[in-house]
Amino acid sequence: MGESGGAIYHVSMGEDLEAILFGFAQAMFSGEPVSSTTPDFEAALAKLSENRTLKAQSAMTWPIPAKTALRELLICWIFVIRQSIEQGDPSPVPQDWISGSSSTRLNEKLVAEILNRSDALISLSQRRRQALEDRGRMH
């Protein structure tokens, strides 16, 4: 398989991870309206640290500020994945990292990666929220 075959594989890997993260973010709110609650990243990271894997059903029981923060972390990671794909970077995570994960379950490697990336994802979330607030003030 040539380079183009590898590129197709990498893009599909990123899209697979993106679909898992997006599906999980939706599943943990299961029909609830998305809250405008200020995210509590500290609480979300503490809850995440308690789990080697995480099921959406468990995340549903988290306090809304912690659940909102986890959704923010997932959305920001999706943004990072999309940027990587657009820039032609290799797969954002190795194939075996998504094995056993789904839109209702994050495996141990994905939970660990969210924790590892948390500072950068929180920073991105704060910049994103600030940009939305600034845009809202302009209108």
Keywords:
single chain, mainly alpha, two-stranded antiparallel ribbon, 139 residues
Question: What does the model show?
Answer:
With about 140 residues, the protein is mostly helical. Helices cover about 70% and strands about 5% of the residues. The protein has six helices and two strands; from the N terminus they run ααβαααβα. The longest helix is centred in the C-terminal third of the chain and has 31 residues, at about 110-139.
Distance between the termini: 51 Å
Number of helices: 6
> Biggest sheet, in brief?
2 strands, antiparallel
Strand content: under 5%
What is the residue-mean pLDDT, rounded to a whole number? 83
Helicity, in percent? 55-70%
- Class derived from helix and strand content: mainly alpha
In sequence order, what are the helices and strands, one letter per element? HHEHHHEH
Question: SSE layout and pairings?
Answer:
Layout: H1 3-27, H2 41-49, E1 54-55, H3 56-59, H4 64-86, H5 95-98, E2 105-106, H6 108-138
Antiparallel strand pairs: 1-2
